[in-house]
Design goal:
The chain is α/β, with parallel strands linked by helices. It has 15 helices and 25 strands. Strands 15-18-19-14-13-21-22 form a 7-stranded mixed sheet, with helices on both faces. The chain has a 6-stranded mixed sheet with strand order 10-9-8-11-12-24, sandwiched between helices. It has a 3-stranded mixed sheet with strand order 1-5-4, covered by helices on one side.
C-alpha cells in the first residue's frame, strides 16, 4: 500500500514517528493509502527548512520567482488527468468535476499570483518641499497555511501561491482526509526548480500538526480555511501571540429568488448551487427563499430537476459522488433527521444510497430538499455542508432580508431579479461578504474574497492576498 510522505526541505520524507494514518476512498469505504501521522517534531524541521530558505527566496528577482511558479502551474496542467483522478479517489467527487473545476483552478491560482506579483506596487506621498514618504511591502518570513478537504488542491494552492509569490516561505498542512494531491504537488515543485525549503508540506491531524503550526513562535502568519469552531481554536492560540491571521470559515448562505427573475436560469443555477460537489462547498446556497407568486412553480421545477440528478460512482458520468468521509456522512444524515423532528417535510431525497457494483459500501446520500421549516430553526441556522437544502416562500424584501441575515454566518448570498434597482438595494443590505446577482460561483481572481460575522476574518484573493502576505513600512525622507 502506498505511503504518502511529507515534503520538507525539497525532498519527500517519512514522519519522525514513523506512524501512519489510514487514507480511505469514500466511494468504496476502503483504505487505499497511508498518510504520515506527523507531530510538532516534523513541523519544527519544516520551519527550520523554511527559515533557512527565506533569505534567498525573498531576495530573489520577482521575475525569477514568477517563472518558477508559472512552471508549477504548467506541470499541474500537464498532469490534469492524474490529478483529477487522485482528487476524486481522495474526496469522493466525480472525476469530471475535478478535471473541469478543481485542478484547472489550482493551476490558475499559481499562474494568477505568479503574474500578479510582477505588478505589486507601493504608494508614494510627497510633503511639499519637505519630505517624501514611500511604502515598502516586504515578505514577512515563514507562513503557516492550513487548508480543508472539500476542494483540496484548489484551496491549498489558493493559499500557498500568493504567499510564495510575495516572497515568503511556507509550512503547509493539507487536510488529513484528502492529502493526495498536495503530495503530488510537491513533485511539481521539485520539477519546476523551486529551491529546497521554500514550500514544506506536513501531513497529519489538526490537533497535532495544525496546532503546532498555529502555535509555533517562528510562524508569524496563519492562513486557514475550514470550520468556524476550528478557526476559533486557531485564533485563541495565534491572537495572544499577535500573529497575522486570515480565517475563511463556515457559511449558511441564502439564495433569494424574486418573482421577476429569469426563471429558467434561476432554476438551473439553483440546482448547481445546492448540490455541486455533494453540497460540500462553503459557498453553496443552502437556504432557498422564493417570492410567493412563483413559489409553487419554482418548487415543482426544482424538485423535478433534483430528482433527475444522477448520484453514484465518481468515476462514471454522475452529477454527485460520495460524501467525503464516514463521519461527515453520518453528520449529514443526522441533520436530515433533525429537520423532520423540527417539522420539516422532505420533498425529495433524505436517504442514504447504496449504488450497485464497486461502490455498494460507499458514503452516498440523495440530494435533499426540505420544506416547512421556520427560518430560525437549527436546520436553517447550522452549517450542514452536504446535499441538503431548505426552501420557503416570502412576501416582501424586508421579510426575506430578515430571513437571510438571521444566521451567525455571512459568507455569500445569491439574488435573482431582473430589477437593477432591487438588485443594488438588496445587495447593500445583505450581511454577506460575497453577493452574486443572477449567477453563482462566478469568480474573478482579481477580486477580494471573504465573509462577515462567524464566516471569517480578513480577505483573500487579488492584491488583498499579496498585501496580507507582506509587511508594510513607511519610509520618510526629509530633504
Amino acid at each position: 500500500m502506498e505511503k504518502i510522505a511529507n515534503y520538507i526541505n525539497g525532498v519527500y520524507t517519512p514522519p519522525l514517528s514513523n506512524a501512519y494514518l489510514d487514507n480511505i476512498n469514500p466511494a468504496i469505504a476502503e483504505v487505499y493509502s497511508l498518510i504520515p501521522d506527523s507531530d510538532e517534531g516534523d513541523v519544527e524541521v519544516a520551519v527550520q527548512a523554511a527559515q533557512n530558505a527565506f533569505e534567498n527566496w525573498s531576495t530573489m528577482s520577482v521575475h525569477k520567482r514568477s517563472n518558477i511558479l508559472l512552471k508549477v502551474a504548467q506541470l499541474i496542467e500537464d498532469k490534469l488527468q492524474a490529478f483529477a483522478e487522485a482528487e476524486s479517489i481522495d474526496n469522493g467527487k466525480p472525476v469530471w468535476l475535478a478535471k473541469t473545476v478543481d485542478i484547472p483552478r489550482a493551476a490558475a491560482n499559481f499562474r494568477h499570483y505568479a503574474t500578479a506579483a510582477l505588478h505589486l506596487h507601493t504608494e508614494t506621498h510627497a510633503m511639499e518641499l519637505t519630505a517624501l514618504n514611500y511604502t515598502l511591502r516586504q515578505p514577512i518570513g515563514v507562513v503557516g497555511c492550513i487548508s480543508p478537504w472539500n476542494l483540496p488542491l484548489y484551496l491549498f494552492t489558493w493559499k500557498i501561491a500568493p504567499a510564495l509569490a510575495a516572497g515568503n516561505c511556507v509550512v503547509a498542512k493539507p487536510s488529513e482526509i484528502t492529502p493526495n494531491t498536495a503530495f503530488m504537488l510537491a513533485q511539481c515543485c521539485i520539477d519546476a526548480g523551486m529551491p529546497a525549503g521554500v514550500l514544506n508540506i506536513v501531513h497529519g491531524l489538526g490537533p497535532k500538526v495544525g496546532q503546532a503550526i498555529a502555535a509555533h513562535k517562528n510562524i508569524p502568519v496563519i492562513s486557514f480555511t475550514g470550520g468556524t469552531q476550528t478557526g476559533a481554536t486557531i485564533a485563541s492560540i495565534a491572537a495572544p501571540m499577535f500573529k497575522k491571521m486570515s480565517l475563511e470559515l463556515g457559511g449558511k448562505n441564502p439564495n433569494i429568488i424574486f418573482a421577476d427573475c429569469d426563471f429558467e436560469h434561476a432554476l438551473a443555477t439553483t440546482v448547481k448551487s445546492s448540490f455541486s460537489n455533494q453540497g460540500e462547498i462553503c459557498l453553496c446556497g443552502s437556504r432557498i427563499f422564493v417570492e410567493r407568486p412563483i413559489y409553487e412553480k419554482f418548487k415543482q421545477g426544482f424538485v423535478a430537476a433534483t430528482k433527475a440528478l444522477k448520484v453514484g460512482d465518481p468515476q462514471q458520468d454522475n452529477f454527485m459522488g460520495a460524501i467525503v468521509s464516514e463521519m461527515h456522512y453520518h453528520k449529514i444524515l443526522s441533520y436530515i433527521q433533525l429537520a423532520t423532528e423540527e417539522g420539516g417535510t422532505i420533498l425529495t431525497g433524505g436517504r442514504a444510497i447504496k449504488p450497485e457494483g464497486r461502490c455498494a459500501n460507499g458514503y452516498f446520500i440523495e440530494p435533499t430538499i426540505i420544506e416547512g421549516l421556520s427560518y430560525n430553526c437549527r436546520t436553517n441556522m447550522e452549517e450542514i455542508f452536504g446535499p441538503v437544502v431548505t426552501i420557503m416562500p416570502f412576501d416582501t424584501e424586508a421579510e426575506v432580508l430578515q430571513y437571510a441575515n438571521a444566521t451567525k454566518y455571512g459568507l455569500a448570498a445569491t439574488v435573482w431579479t431582473t430589477n437593477l434597482n432591487k438588485a443594488h438595494r438588496v445587495a447593500a443590505l445583505l450581511h454577506s461578504g460575497i453577493i452574486w446577482i443572477n449567477c453563482w460561483l462566478l469568480r474573478d481572481l482579481r477580486t477580494l474574497f471573504g465573509g462577515m460575522k462567524n464566516s471569517g476574518l480578513g480577505r483573500e484573493g487579488g492584491f488583498e492576498a499579496l498585501h496580507f502576505f507582506t509587511e508594510e513600512k513607511n519610509v520618510c525622507i526629509k530633504f
